[in-house]
Amino acid sequence: MSANKQTVETYIDGVQQIRSRTDPVVPDRHIQWTVFGACRLSGEEAYDSGIENPAFVGSPTVTIVRMVEEGDVVMAEMTVEVQRSNGETMRAAMGEVFVMANTTRSKNGAPTSWS
User: Which of the listed CATH numbers 3.10.450.50, 3.40.50.1820, 3.90.70.10, 1.10.3720.10 matches domain 3-99?
Assistant: First the structure.
């Protein structure tokens, strides 16, 4: 597995443990997260508020179905399941595109820049 795909797996593993982690999961302060039809978040603070949303309880279960890589871009197809605070289960399929600015990694293994 390539270093870029390993970085994506490490990031997704961190997202699944978000509520029990003390170290940040945000790989870069310039992050941009678009949830089509719902929202677009830009920057570390907005990302944190989206991930640690009080509408959900516990940590999500994220399964990577497949990853495709071309140069410094990795597209990950995933499924997610998470409990809403009202007791309902939310299930979704999604794709995320990770654009690596370079192959230098930060101390936690995350890409130094991506969106």
Answer: 3.10.450.50
Residue 75 near residue 55, CB atoms below 8 Å: no
The token pair at 33 is 């997260």
For residue range 58-73, list pLDDT tens digits in order. 888 999 999 999 998 8
**Domains of the chain, residue spans:** 3-99
Tell me the three state secondary structure of residue 54: coil
Token readout for 28 is 């870069």
State pTM to two decimals: 0.71
Question: Which comes out higher in pLDDT, residue 7 or 14?
Answer: 7
**81 vs 90: CA distance, rounded Å:** 6
Beta-bridge mates of residue 93: 79
